[in-house]
């Protein structure tokens, strides 16, 4: 298993290098540069502006700028935000806990609904229960998350007043107190539901279809012929094999949840890295955009690695390939 994990890590290393090149080139292709946020906007002296651009290294060849940027990133220096006038990594670290809390909450909601509905639907196919669950799944797949978020805010926040529509915690609460924890949970429920709804629908359909398909396999018929109880057949043969494709989705879900939080956080004004990412693009804070793009991409690669490891744990044949 250790060799299997090391092989997967070795595959990721060149992908990280290629990813850093792509992120850097995309940032350089954006109009303008970060100099506009680093100097006084009232300065119009072209000679002074060109002198500053030369001093900051913006006129250097791209490979020299890339090497300098990578060297700084390896040392934990992602540059300085030209909008907030503070290190980009400090700004991002201050927002990451909110986004991770939202993503983990959405993932818990996703797996809870998916496992319950998927197992129920898969064990009772083509019944009224199965058709009802499938209807909800198709609605979840058809409705974009931002549309669902707007409806949720309108009905559950404005009309019914069940949940807050903005922020991550109520104002004036002492961090670490029980009231603070309750407020955090209360504020995350609605955006987490909207963020996890699409994934829950996808997972439910995959699990339902795999349970039905695996229930018809030859090894299941053989187990029944040997007199194995239905409970053991379902647990050891059908359900375990049905989890394999879900595990593959799970790794990518880590990156997609955090990436999907960009829209959700903006709609709910939830102060995470998603909202920071859109704000940085709008205000051309290139340093923060590059740092966040790299970090979000790394989350996807780490998710892929986790999926590979879980895949190998569930199906030992994968480790031997």
TrEMBL record:
Domain ABC transmembrane type-1, residue spans: 96-307
Subcellular location(s) per record: Cell membrane
UniProt membrane topology term: Multi-pass membrane protein
InterPro entries documented for this protein: BPD_transp_1_N, MetI-like, MetI-like_sf
Gene Ontology terms: biological process: transmembrane transport
GO cellular component, one term: plasma membrane
Membrane-traversing stretches: 9-30, 100-117, 138-165, 185-207, 243-268, 288-314
Keywords recorded for this protein, A-Z: Cell membrane, Membrane, Transmembrane, Transmembrane helix, Transport
Pfam families assigned to the protein according to its UniProt record, in alphabetical order: BPD_transp_1, BPD_transp_1_N
Record CDD domains: TM_PBP2
Gene3D superfamilies for the chain: MetI-like (1.10.3720.10)
Family that this chain belongs to: Belongs to the binding-protein-dependent transport system permease family.
PANTHER family: DIPEPTIDE TRANSPORT SYSTEM PERMEASE PROTEIN DPPB-RELATED (PTHR43163:SF6)
Name of the featured protein: Peptide/nickel transport system permease protein
